[in-house]
Amino acid sequence: xxxxxxxxxxxxxxxxxxxxxxxxxxxxxxxxxxxxxxxxxxxxxxxxxxxxxxxxxxxxxxxxxxxxxxxxxxxxxxxxxxxxxxxxxxxxxxxxxxxxxxxxxxxxxxxxxxxxxxxxxxxxxxxxxxxxxxxxxxxxxxxxxxxxxxxxxxxxxxxxxxxxxxxxxxxxxxxxxxxxxxxxxxxxxxxxxxxxxxxxxxxxxxxxxxxxxxxxxxxxxxxxxxxxxxxxxxxxxxxxxxxxxxxxxxxxxxxxxxxxxxxxxxxxxxxxxxxxxxxxxxxxxxxxxxxxxxxxxxxxxxxxxxxxxxxxxxxxxxxxxxxxxxxxxxxxxxxxxx
Length: 338
Ligand SMILES: [Zn+2]
Hints:
Helices cover about 35% and strands about 15% of the residues.
């Protein structure tokens, strides 16, 4: 029996997008801050393009990662092992199991304990789907950009943060069955709510390695929870202001520590939505590549050779800088309206 409070989302199709903010608001580019944080700068320099490439290659070497396939458990095991190799002990890397009727599925959760119990959650889904037949569990579906890119970025961030003392708890969460309608995140968001987790911010990474669909090849979309258009998943208004503030911070991190410029865009069709609907503060990073003129989206052509690893490395740096910027401070700037 399904628990009644769980919501059913349609299978996410990021090609159906909200109209979004006016262009002027989206594009206000940040100029570099006068003072650059030396600690953040030193950690950013540890982000390794070759680690990211290796993880992309491993993830895409699974025949597919469909959540009903025989491969999905192998991917979960592999993720757990990689986190342990990066230095997390077994008690800090766990499965969050959930039942979807067809299979028992697993989110992979890695805990990085801070000095307080306040929590930042950084997430990406690891499953794949083929648009032409969503029930095809046997064909090849490498899912390089969607979403080995987001998973690889988080693995690299987790590797670096393993050795750093932070005020905040960080959870790195790899969701299953996103492509089946945000199932892993819907279950887990409710679990955190039931347990009254002190969750301050959710940062979701879904498709961050294939630039060229936004104004420049160095533009990254920073997803912000303040759009009310069709397809937007902004249901709660009280968390919008905080999301705007964190999104502005992330844009600033892009300018300060990378060669990218951030452009604001709406939250929709990904794993932050179940958190948003429960009142949590969410942002995301996205390359804008789910377009009708992109033949790779949800297809067997979503292969590593389409990715721009330099861009993906820069997005990884931007997200790492954002986490360090937010998690070092206690208490975090009181931006949450929860
Ligand atoms: Zn995705």
